[in-house]
Amino acid sequence: MSIGRPRQFDPDRALERAMETFWSQGYEATSLQDLLAAMSLSKSSLYQSFGDKPRLFDRCLRHYARERESALLESLEASDSARAFIETTFNAAAEGTDTERSRWGCLLMNTASEFGMRDTRVSQAVAEGVARFTRVFRAAVERAQREGDVPADRDPQALARYLVTNMTGLRTLLKAGIGRDEARAVVAITLRALD
């Protein structure tokens, strides 16, 4: 009985490369040839391992959201205080130093802008990703309230949504070319909402 040929590629790395391609170019502008080149796959290997372009894109959106959530949670857990985590996260975004990919904006918001609500699967993946980020910031706000750095009477869910809204807006502005001084000013105003 044949067990089949072993895979000749790293599926996690191939997914990461596909995600980067969609993220930097957008869904519509990304051709099948772009994906095959980025992932170093043949067309048959791509279809066998990831399905068609829409299914691959869905996996990329979900991978992006999990990856960002994991990085944020790790940073929150390592921070001396939750308020410091929030401030560091926003200041790093303003400086463009939190990731080499910062000039691409936020993949979820890029996708929301490109698709609107015309594709249910895409809308659901975007909404689930936003919910992941909101949970992280809610956990940060609640911890900051316990630590006495955010007033206890503030609604943590509303503050978390506010922070996610401002972070995604900031990333979009950075993608559009806003300067660092302007970005820092936006962050300063955003952080005042926690006082």
Helices, by number, come to: 9
Largest sheet: none
CATH class of the domain at 60-192: Mainly Alpha
Secondary structure class reads mainly alpha
Low-confidence stretches: none
Q: Give the helices and strands as they follow along the chain.
A: HHHHHHHHH
**What is the approximate shape?**
elongated
CATH-level-4 superfamily name of the domain at 60-192:
Tetracycline Repressor, domain 2
Would you count the extended β strands for me? 0
Describe this entry's structure for a reader:
With 195 residues, the chain is mainly alpha-helical. The chain has a domain at 60-192: Tetracycline Repressor, domain 2 (Orthogonal Bundle). 72% of the residues lie in helices and 0% in strands. The chain is built from 9 helices and no strands. It has helices at residues 11-25, 32-39, 43-50, 53-78, 82-95, 107-115, 120-146, 156-176, 180-192. The longest helix has 27 residues, at 120-146. It is elongated and about 55 Å long. The termini are far apart. The relative contact order is 0.12.
Name its key features.
195 residues; mainly alpha; Tetracycline Repressor, domain 2; 72% helix
Summarize the structure.
This protein is an all-alpha fold and 195 residues long.
Describe how the helices and strands are arranged.
Layout (H helix, E strand, L loop, with lengths): L10 H15 L6 H8 L3 H8 L2 H26 L3 H14 L11 H9 L4 H27 L9 H21 L3 H13 L3
Helix pairs in contact: 1-2, 1-4, 4-5, 4-7, 5-7, 5-9, 6-7, 7-8, 8-9
